[in-house]
Amino acid sequence: MSEFFLSALSFGLAAGLKPGPLGIIVIQQTLAKGLLSGFRASLAPLITDGPIIVAALWLLSNFKSIHLFVASLGLAGGLYLIWLARKILAIKDISLAGKLSTESSILQAVKVNSLNPSPYLFWFTVGGAYILRGTALESTVFVITTILTLIASKFAMALLAAFFKSALESRGYVLVMKALAVTMVVFGLISIHKAYVLMHAAGFL
Q1: Domain range spanning residue 147?
Q2: Residue 101 neighbours by CB distance under 10 Å
Q3: Rounded CA gap, 7 and 9, in Å?
Q4: What residues in the chain have per-residue pLDDT under 70?
Q5: How many angstroms separate the CA atoms of 97 and 68, rounded?
Q6: How many alpha carbons fall within 13 Å on the CB side of residue 39?
Q7: Alpha-carbon distance 115 to 183, whole Å?
Q8: Long-range CB contacts (< 8 A, 24+ apart) of 22-26?
């Protein structure tokens, strides 16, 4: 159970704190209309990720007995985490200048997040692999923890935008992101290892 909770916590924090389209929307809402609007924009994953998770569960449950598919999913998820971590580790500084000029709404936040490939890549790769490997309770804990941590991280960004705008461009923020990236590499390697063990046990290697 601890692996599912801690990994979900790490994934949610990394997705919530990394610079991206939804994060910019949250900051825009907060700076343009106040903290409450930023909080509303932060709730976009509740609307966008829900259908993605349902689709992933429906699709992946049909392949649960196929070990090669599950192992391939875990391998793809592990590689995706390492790729994403590499992009985060390459960040040298964060500048929001010139990115806060347009207004946004909760509908725009939902639209932006719906068009963002990251939720799809996550739930159909590493997220799906965790759902397939876990019991009903473990999978539920994983999904709920990931979503709530993601939203809480966006809330934190709204607070930073409202009260500590300069902190969003600080060296400490970059260092936190890099620490999370290292954690993502660890979980990526774990996912790849589990995929190898599953493929070996099933006689594919």
Answers
A1: 2-201
A2: 8
A3: 5
A4: 63-67, 69, 93-105, 165-170, 173, 205
A5: 47
A6: 4
A7: 26
A8: 22/109, 22/112, 22/113, 22/116, 22/154, 23/154, 23/157, 24/96, 24/99, 24/100, 25/104, 25/108, 25/109, 25/112, 25/113, 26/109, 26/154, 26/157, 26/158, 26/161
Token look-up 């985060």 returns: 88
Structure tokens, 192: 């790849």
* Overall number of domains in the chain: 1
Tens digits of residue pLDDT in 116-163: 778 888 888 888 888 888 888 998 999 999 999 999 999 998 888 788
> CA-to-CA distance for 14 and 91, rounded, in angstroms?
14
How far is the C-alpha of 18 from the C-alpha of 143, rounded, in Å?
A: 19
Looking up tokens 């829900």, which residue turns up? 50
Write out the H or E segment, with its range, that includes residue 77. Answer: helix 67-89
Predicted structure pTM score? 0.72
Query: At residue 75, what is the residue type?
Result: L
Amino acid symbol at 182: V
